[in-house]
Amino acid sequence: MRESVIDVLFYLFEDILEEEGADETDFEFVANSLEEAGFAREDIVRAMDWFYAFGNLNETAPQVGQHAIRVFSSREREFLDSECQNFLYGLQRSGVIDGAILEMVIERALALEEPLDVEILRWVALMVMLNARRQEDDPLVGAWREQWLYVDDNNVWQ
């Protein structure tokens, strides 16, 4: 996928879904809005596929042992550099995510099919966590929205 797919996703989340509300939005409306905004149909379809895959995340989440140690494969390292890996390890060490959500984040990041920087990965992680933990009374959901997974200049999760 090209960077424009990520641009489509940002536009989708920041402009269309926020304005219309996720419950009121249908595929044709979204696709037409994105085309009117100047995005290529191919990128729109790829972005929508990525977006709609969230519906299956909890069903396909792997069972991960509590004391499992995650080692990134060579393919994963192609897309997630050491800075990204450290960011994910930090989320897990601090208890923000568990092993199953970590795997979901990695899967959604790799689905973008391009190397990511930590800013894009932070956004992917937020989308996964918000979709994996839909309970509105969950205090972490509100905190994630407010903090947007803040990381300081040294890439230390705050």
UniProtKB/TrEMBL annotation:
One matching Pfam family: DUF494
Which PANTHER family does the annotation name? PROTEIN SMG
Q: Which family does it belong to?
A: Belongs to the Smg family.
The entry's protein name is Protein Smg homolog
- Its source organism is Suttonella indologenes
Species lineage: Bacteria, Pseudomonadati, Pseudomonadota, Gammaproteobacteria, Cardiobacteriales
Corresponding gene?
smg
